[in-house]
Each structure stands twice: as structure tokens, then as C-alpha cells.
Amino acid sequence: MPNYSKNPFLTGSDEEYAMLIEVSEEFEKQKISRTVREEFGTPVEIVIRNHLIKRNLNLSMSPDVTIQGSKIKNDLLLLKSGVDPNQKTFPSENVKMIIEIKNNGVGGKTLENGKREDPNKELRIKFNELEAMTNVRNFAVIVLSETLLPPRTPSKWRFKEEKIGKENCKVFTLIARQIYPPGGLYIKSNIVNMLQNEQMKKTGEFQQLINYLKCL
Fold first, then answer.
1. How far is it, in rounded angstroms, from Cα 173 to Cα 53?
2. Distance CA 174, CA 201 (A)
3. pTM of the prediction?
4. What is the pLDDT of residues 113-140, one digit of tens each?
5. Sequential DSSP letters for 185-200
């Protein structure tokens, strides 16, 4: 895992910080009405999609989209140029990449032995099934922020390429945090406090993500 300790602190002018604020605002909107979530997705899906679209990337616009040949629902698809993004199901030949979007890593269901399932394993199973059924071979996981900085140890449930175990899958974490704030990540005051207390750093992976998607 990269060491982000020497990276620059996140600032109020950084696009990644704007994403955090926008996610918290979208979360408040969706507490009032579920219609937005049903039409456009979770807060983090909406915000990351909107920021990537500004880079002239052709991305699916609806939540829970599928690819012909599979009933598995997906957060986001990178589409070929000229493909209508406002569909719910896409032919596999129109899809460049399947993208999973996460706010942060969270342990999966509790197993019979009392342990929680690793989200990396869950994704590996999902991606393997999608690849077998649709023949789409490129995958990415975008994580908005994760607890990765000292003094705490990195999150046990963080997404890691080596744990997902697919050569054709990339993980991009946009912000590294020191803490998971009391009350959660969707509260704007928590985000502001973490910024003021210099508890977040840029990873540099947002630009890496953009470059990667544009090269496919």
C-alpha cells in the first residue's frame, strides 16, 4: 500500500475536498426524498460521476445498470464514445469498464465462524462473474476516502488490488484520512473539522484515475 504520510494536506480549494462537501449535501437531500437516489444513485456515486463527466468521459447515468448477459447491478460503466449513456442495460461491446464506487471500505456480512467477509473477496467474486458472463475485462474501484494515515493503523477493510486479486482491476483512493469522525463521513461539520485539523491528505490518485480512464 502506498505511504501517503508525506503527501500534501488536503486544502479547501482541492477538487477532492469539494467532492466530500457535495456528498454531504447530497446525503441531506436524499434524507428528504429517495427519488433522487432511485434515479441517479447514492450520494458518492452522483458526485464522482459528475466530476468525471466534466473530463468528457462517457459514463452511464442511471444507478444499478446492467450489461446484457448478466443480471448483476453495477454502480457505473465507462462506455465507448457515442453510446447513449441514459440506458439501464448495455450491450457488452459498448462497455469499456465496470466501475465500483465506494465511500470507504466496510466489512461484509458476518460468516458462520463469526468473522466478517472481506469486501475485497466480495468484489473479486462479482467481477469474476461479470467477466465470465459479459466478457468485459476491465474493472476499477473508486474509493472517495479511507482511514490510511497515522497514528491509527490503516483500515482493516480497505480496498487493495492485491486482495481483490485481478490483474485487470485497479483501485483508486482519492483522499487519505487520519480518522473516521464520530457521527460519520456525511456530516459537513465533520469534514470541515478534519480539514482545519489537517487530518486529510491528497493521494494524487484522482488524476491517475482520469488519465487511466482516458487511455482505455
1. 18
2. 9
3. 0.95
4. 767 889 999 999 999 999 999 999 999 9
5. SS-HHHHHHHHHTT-E
